């Protein structure tokens, strides 16, 4: 099991800044990782993915039901600010009552230190807490607010309520849902920027060498969207994790503020949520929580009837 360290939420509150690998070490390792991943991506990429163009037979949502993808203000990849912490939205969800949610990591609403990654032992802000949505936040401010929501579900809060004790669930179940304010739902599109999708839910996990695609939106990038799309490779699942976690490398690794962002596998299937950085035995790898496990837990215990993942309106296009 790789050793997870700091959560990737960025907080402006003193004492909430994630720990970092020393800069000189990070620079040296990052250069090696980038070269290794670039080579692995070329070698591991399926032949069909090397052809530019949308994936075949995608399962998409009707475009008329959502804001246009090109102009939508709220979407996967939107910045989410909770009590000073900035994270990235992963995917859009709906329920039987017609409410719309944007997902992110449960630790983004946690009140523990930056190294607290166990949801069964770490407290969170309460349900109903206001969350600001933006796309151009930076180190100085949240940027232009494009919408609001409230924390409607947290796996960490639910684990506390249930008295959960399973080690893998406590360590890797890291999903929260923010209910979008009714007046802002018209601004939502469920497509992942740049890549398109998701086209469904991947319930099979990842194998070593599998390609993955993501869109992180850390305020450290100050809203520079060309720096947000990433692709990489899975390092293979570990049996001890029970299917709850997938370690991987991306070019470049997720950084503070990318936390909560969604990952997709071949064909645009939603597979996971960015949670932690691994230092050993896999330096600068990222760990993502398995979305199929996390969503099943939420469907069983959240009290949100008919909770489901919404497919994008745009076809998945693995152009890198």
What does this entry look like structurally?
By secondary structure, the chain is an alpha+beta fold. It has two domains: 134 residues, Trypsin-like serine proteases (Thrombin, subunit H), CATH 2.40.10; 132 residues, Trypsin-like serine proteases (Thrombin, subunit H). The chain is 15% helix and 27% strand. It is built from four helices and 17 strands. The strands form two sheets. Strands 2-4-3-7-8-9-6-5-17 form a nine-stranded antiparallel sheet. A six-stranded antiparallel β-barrel has the order 11-12-13-16-15-14. A hairpin with a 2-residue loop joins strand 3 and strand 4. It is globular and about 45 Å long. The relative contact order is 0.23.
CATH superfamily of the largest domain: Trypsin-like serine proteases
Q: What is the alpha-carbon Rg in Å? A: 18 Å
Helix content: 10-25%
Total strand segments: 17
How much of the sequence lies in strands comes to 25-35%
Name the structural class.
alpha+beta
Q: Regions with pLDDT < 50 over 5+ consecutive residues?
A: 1-8, 10-57
Tally the helices: what do you get?
4
CATH class of the largest domain: Mainly Beta
| Average pLDDT for all residues | 82
The CA-CA distance between the termini, in Å, is 30 Å
Question: What is the approximate shape?
Answer: globular
Secondary-structure arrangement, i.e. CATH architecture of the largest domain: Beta Barrel
The main pleated sheet reads as: 9 strands, antiparallel
Strands of the biggest beta sheet: in what spatial order?
A: 2-4-3-7-8-9-6-5-17
CATH topology of the largest domain: Thrombin, subunit H
Number of domains: 2
Order of helices and strands: EEHEEEEEEHHEEEEEEEEHE
